[in-house]
Amino acid sequence: MTNFSTLFARYACPLTIATVLLGGAVTAQAQITPTTPPVYPPPAPLASDTAAADQVGQDREFAVPSVIGMGPSKGVVAHIESLSDFKINSTINDRDPAQKASTTVTKNRRAFIKGYIPVWNHPHLKVVIGLNYDREEFQFKEPNNSTYYRNLEDKGLKVIGTQLAVIRPIDETHWYLARIKGELNGDYTSSELDIPDYLKMSGEFIYGWKRSPTFAWGIGAQLGYTFGRQSMYPVVLYNRTFNPHWGVEALFPARVTFRYNASPKTLFFGGYTVDGLNYNIKLREPLMNGLQTLIVRETEVKFRLRMEREIYDFLWFGLEGGYRYNYSFNAFDKDGNKGTLFSLGGGTRPKVIENTLGGAPYASLEVFLVPPRKFLRKTAGGR
Q: What pLDDT, on a 0 to 100 scale, did the predictor assign at position 292?
């Protein structure tokens, strides 16, 4: 049998040799004196460096108007909306004395599809092209009460539009947003489309500040048809998240919305929007004064509640309901005096038909696509 001394010689000797060699290496390393002392803290960046003093070696964060807690960006949106029945009272000024008429609107349905394409998505510049197609229809309980009702009955009022939006972060605090949009609004068909007759242009410019990841605001101006005719008015953007659940998203005076984040996949909203619609229409039956074309201008205020919910990663849906108050729905002589650019309301165009619409509840359903979370993680990781 192998004795103890033999076992010790077999296993202890190699271990002892390895220990001696390792100890010698450690001793040799300890005897090396660095030629220069270590530098601490790291050197400050040069004045030309794009990184902040506490972000050396990291990407610079640029300011944008969005804040933490807002819902995902929408890529493609399909929307349908319907109102309950409501009364319409009209005064037709195409004869002397003016004629009055009234009936019930039994159908006022709207639908649209929109798409947004990011053509440039850099930290210091974001450019988005948008496309949209909208359609609105009316039906009346007694359309024969007025030539105007008969002309609107089942008429497809369309909007085909395109827009270019630019978001330019200037630095970690300042940003600006510019947008220009052109739309063809009216009852045209492809065979009779005359672009100058139906083209409507709008735009906006906002300069803002990003105070924190949860607070951004800005001031600017919009040129558009929110208040009926083309007009320019000041706007205030205010996006703020107060805590993990509550926030506000506003572009005053056009809309103010309070947000409740129930979870990352479920959001609730409540507030109001002011919407303006403007259509050029050709009449099937000329009015008594011989007019065959009109401009219909509608301004409405919606008090709304909304829910958005994720279906699957990149697919969401939205449900919305509320009450619509119609401020105006009047028709003007297309060829009359246009008035001044900065006036609100009807300007100096002759008002041919004055309408008073009753308020009505409404409901809408929306399905939209958003960037997949995998894509967002990949983008964030590559910055």
A: 87
Find the helix or strand (DSSP H, E) in which 205 lies: strand 199-212
> Is 70 part of a structural domain of the chain?
no
Do 271 and 233 form a contact (C-beta atoms < 8 A)? no
pLDDT of 374 reads 74
60 located within any domain: no
207-212-217 Cα angle (round to 5):
30
Which letter does DSSP use for residue 24 in this model?
A: H
Q: How many domains does the chain have?
A: 1
- Determine phi and psi for 66, rounding to 5 degrees: -80, 155
The reported pLDDT for the residue numbered 44 is 40
State the pLDDT confidence band at 194, using cuts at 50, 70 and 90: confident
Residue 41, preceding peptide bond in cis (omega within 30° of 0): yes
Q: Is 170 part of a structural domain of the chain? A: yes
Question: Helix %, strand %, coil % for the chain, to 5?
Answer: 15, 55, 35
Q: How far is CA 280 from the centre of its chain?
A: 26
Nearest to 159 by CA among 196, 218, 110: 110
Question: How far apart are the C-alpha atoms of 264 and 291, rounded to whole Å?
Answer: 55
**123-150, pLDDT tens digit by residue?**
889 999 999 999 999 999 999 988 899 9
| Secondary structure of 265-280 in HEC code, one letter for each residue | CEEEEEEEEEEEEEEE
Closest CA to 76 of 376, 314, 379: 314
| Whether this model's pTM surpasses 0.90 | no
One-letter amino acid for residue 34 of the chain = P
Mean pLDDT along residues 345-367: 85
Kindly report the CATH number assigned to the domain that includes residue 198. Answer: 2.40.160
Q: Which domain holds residue 283?
A: 76-381
Q: Is 80:111 a contact under the CB 8 Å cutoff? A: yes
8 A C-beta contact, residue 138 and residue 262: no
Closest CA relative to residue 89, chosen from 298, 357, 324, 360: 357
Question: What are the pLDDT digits (tens) for 99-126?
Answer: 899 999 999 999 999 999 999 988 889 9
Residue indicated by tokens 């509640």 = 305
Mention every residue, 6+ apart, whose C-beta is less than 8 A from residue 102.
87, 88, 89, 90, 145
Structure tokens at 255: 């809309």
In-domain check, residue 175: yes
